[in-house]
Amino acid sequence: LVSLSIAASMVFLITLILLGDLGAAFLVFLMVALTDVAILAAFVVRGLSIEFISALVLVLAVGFSVDYSAHIAHAFIHSDGVTGDDRARDALAKIGKSVICGGFSTWLAVVLLPFSNSYLFKEVIFWSMTFTVGFGMFHGMLVLPVLLSLIHDGRQWWCGAQYPIDRGGGEVGAKSTKRSTTQDDVAMNRTLVIRKVSLV
């Protein structure tokens, strides 16, 4: 438990530094914690005993599972979408395929272990990596985007994105951008008309 707590704490600290957002870092930490709990429950269902190797795998699972959630959170933070749903869809569209390929390639490293005669490789390591990749991708690609979308309220302090702001006192978001663009077009047309009149 001490090693697991230290690993999880370092995950939170590093993701906080790299993502630069407290809320996103906490959600990534939560996804990693839920993944470890799910792996532990799967061990019990599978009938695997909790011994030295299993405990070591739980610590290693922290490092494996953080990738999926961290990439999705980073893509969500830097998305151009206005609403939380738009950002979640954009994040999954941009990085989702890469996350799936990364998880699948990780699982391919142990896909032949069930044919081994060793109990350690056939049962403990194979199922540990399978649970880690499966639950890690589930929480990172399904649970995390939903939570980010629900909690997201369009404010800069949460997602860290620079929204276009209408300096004329308009709303923040896509509507204000269109309004600001229209005002710029009108001002430009007026300038052109004044120049033509002055030339005449």
Please describe what this structure looks like:
- With 200 residues, the chain is an all-alpha fold.
- The protein has helices spanning 2-19, 22-46, 52-77, 84-108, 119-151, 156-159, 174-199.
Brief account:
The chain contains 7 helices and no strands.
* Poorly predicted parts: 161-200
According to DSSP, the number of beta strands is 0
Distance between the termini: 84 Å
Backbone structural class: mainly alpha
Tell me the helix content: over 70%
Report the sheet-strand fraction: under 5%
Overall mean pLDDT score? 74
Q: How many whole angstroms does the radius of gyration measure? A: 24 Å
The main sheet comes to: none
Give the SSE order as H and E letters.
Answer: HHHHHHH
Tally the helices: what do you get?
A: 7
- Principal-axes shape call: globular
Q: Based on the structure, what is the oligomeric state of the protein chains? A: single chain
List the helices and strands and how they pair.
Layout: H1 2-19, H2 22-46, H3 52-77, H4 84-108, H5 119-151, H6 156-159, H7 174-199
Helix pairs in contact: 1-2, 1-3, 2-3, 2-5, 3-4, 3-5, 4-5
